[in-house]
Amino acid sequence: MPRWVIVLLVVVGASVVLAPVGLLVGFIYVYGENHADMRDPVEDVSVARCAVDPVTRRPVAELTVTSQAARTGTYHLMIDFQDRDGRFVETVRPAVEDLAPGATGRAAAVGRWPYEGGGLRCVVMEARFASTEPVGTASP
Prior knowledge:
It is a single chain. The protein is of the alpha+beta class. About 25% of the residues lie in helices and about 40% in strands. It is built from 1 helix and 7 strands, in the order αβββββββ. The model has no long low-confidence stretch (mean pLDDT about 90).
């Protein structure tokens, strides 16, 4: 086999192997750059108080949300009430609406059923942010 054919096979073979690897590395780099400053809305939420209401015996979580978002929006939360061993009691989904950037809002998550166990824990399982600020106007 001539030498130029061997060189051609090596170059084509290397290209076939290295091109997908190069594309993958490029994708990972660009993905990381595009998502470098993204935050999880859960980081904006804290549990200020977690207790059982003395009258109704229902679990109550008082939540504080300090918006680090760039726009005004609503935080949709999912709070799990758990017993002292971490076993699920119930889930509540409160919201903090139209919170401006840098502002602090409060919400109460109140369980539906009385809780007779001890050692209640309130865990922020999820937080989703939905912008309520218009992005722009449509041109005529």
